[in-house]
Amino acid sequence: MLIRSLARGVAAAALLSSAALAADLIIPTTPAPIMESAGFLWDGLYAGVQFGGLFYPTTTYGSVGLHAGVNVVVADPILLGLEATADYLNNGGTGVGQYFANARVGAVITDQVLVYAIGGLGLETIGGFTNGIYQLGAGVEFAVTEAISVRGQLTGLGFFDPAIRVSAFDGARATVGIGYHF
Fold first, then answer.
1. Tens digit of pLDDT at every position of the chain (182 positions)
2. Are 77 and 109 in contact (CB under 8 A)?
3. One CATH from 3.90.1150.10, 2.40.160.20, 3.40.50.880, 3.40.50.300 for 44-181
4. By three-state DSSP, how is residue 146 classified?
5. Per the record's keyword annotation, is Signal included, yes or no (predicted)?
6. What torsion, rounded to 10 degrees, do the Cα atoms 129, 55, 103, 126 define?
7. Which of 36, 86, 114, 173 is the most buried (most CB within 10 A)?
8. Global pTM value
């Protein structure tokens, strides 16, 4: 009798548990969205360093400098920016300082690539004399992390003073730089 009661109890438990499973509702779940990286943000403040050379017809200078600026993407892919640069030039004896206020107009080609034109007005100090100068050129900048970019830039330089000016562009500057975007 005990075995028969035990068997009936096990059978009842089995039936009740299957009925309980049948009553469970299946609630569909929405999978979590796949988060994609927003890409490099070219908007905002940045600062960095650059190295390169300045090439005049009769003299070549090594160059080291700083740059700082702000970018605004006004409409995809158009970027507008303002930048200040300060460079120290040396050819083994003569030290020259060049300081520019520049405007940049660019296109964000991909999330990681910016191509831009740059132009600016500035001052050159050499041997106690100061000359007005200008530059016009282009560059390309590549994002390498979420906040760091590298760039290459080529500009033509000219003097405002007709006594110094040889042509529209009296020299050329080639630089490479690294920047941090805040």
1. 556 565 566 566 665 655 455 556 677 777 777 766 567 899 999 999 999 999 999 889 999 999 999 999 999 899 999 999 999 999 888 789 999 999 999 999 999 999 999 999 999 998 889 999 999 999 999 999 999 999 999 999 999 998 888 888 999 999 999 999 99
2. yes
3. 2.40.160.20
4. coil
5. yes
6. -10
7. 114
8. 0.77
